[in-house]
Amino acid sequence: GQQVMQIPQYQHVQEGEDFTTYCNSSTTLSNIQWYKQRPGGHPVFLIQLVKSGEVKKQKRLTFQFGEAKKNSSLHITATQTTDVGTYFCAGQGGGSRLTFGEGTQLTVNP
Amino acid sequence: NAGVTQTPKFQVLKTGQSMTLQCAQDMNHEYMSWYRQDPGMGLRLIHYSVGAGITDQGEVPNGYNVSRSTTEDFPLRLLSAAPSQTSVYFCASGRATTEAFFGQGTRLTVV
Question: Are β-strands A71-76 and A19-25 bridged in parallel, bridged antiparallel, or unpaired?
């Protein structure tokens, strides 16, 4: 079955440093989604990437979808304490089933 | 709109007890799913449904049952609770290939 792997599992940064999390799928995806979960909260949708090689930006966040549609990354420029949480990628293959990666837990030291 | 509503928020069960986690959505989404979240393991899909009357198994279905008699509701039943089912459970809904909306979660402890 489809597997989605995400690294690193944990990342500790000083406020102002950059942060990147990477996602790899065992199969080609129709789209990839990114979610953020604050401590004690529930996952909240950030963005969806559909096209091969697609790059989308949301303020300090940059999302990329690989050319082969099997990998993706999320990059945060100049982290802030409000960026703390766990970031998940989730891939969809041919159907509607969404497979999540293990998540990257980001802590930001002020 | 309430979005996705899960009840209860917290539950403690004894081993062997059964219970139902409730999930309701008011967005007329056809797709609903249940995940469990354990430390370091992300969100693992238990069961999902693509419409009323249609359900299918996810990655970790053993010990759980679901049914989808209406578009709005997708309850998750634990048949005979085990300590390994201690987890945080999330229900989600969405359209087929777009974003998923999550409920607030149910924190379940089985002793």
Answer: antiparallel
B61 touches A: beta carbon within 8 Å: no
Tokens of A41: 């909260």
Among B99, B110, B108, residue whose Cα is nearest residue B3: B99
- Test the B interface: residue of A45, A46, A98, A99 with most B CBs within 10 Å: A98
- Strand positions, DSSP E, B18-105: 19-25, 31-37, 43-51, 54-57, 64-66, 76-78, 87-94, 100-102
Containing A62, the helix (H) or strand (E) segment is strand A61-65
**Most B-contacting residue of A42, A56, A104, A105 (CB-CB within 10 A), to test interface:** A42
Share of chain B above pLDDT 90, in %: 91
Under a CB-based contact definition with an 8 Å cutoff, are residues B83 and B110 in contact? yes
- At A56 the pLDDT is 98
CA distance B81 to B15: 5
pLDDT in tens, A61-85: 999 999 999 999 999 999 999 999 9
Phi-psi region of A9 (alpha: psi -120 to 50; beta: other; left: phi over 0): alpha
Q: With contact defined as beta carbons under 8 Å apart, do B52 and B69 qualify?
A: yes
Q: Is a pLDDT exceeding 70 seen at residue A93?
A: yes
- Please give the residue of chain A at the shortest CA–CA distance from B45: A99
Cis status of the peptide bond prior to A8, with omega within 30 of 0: yes
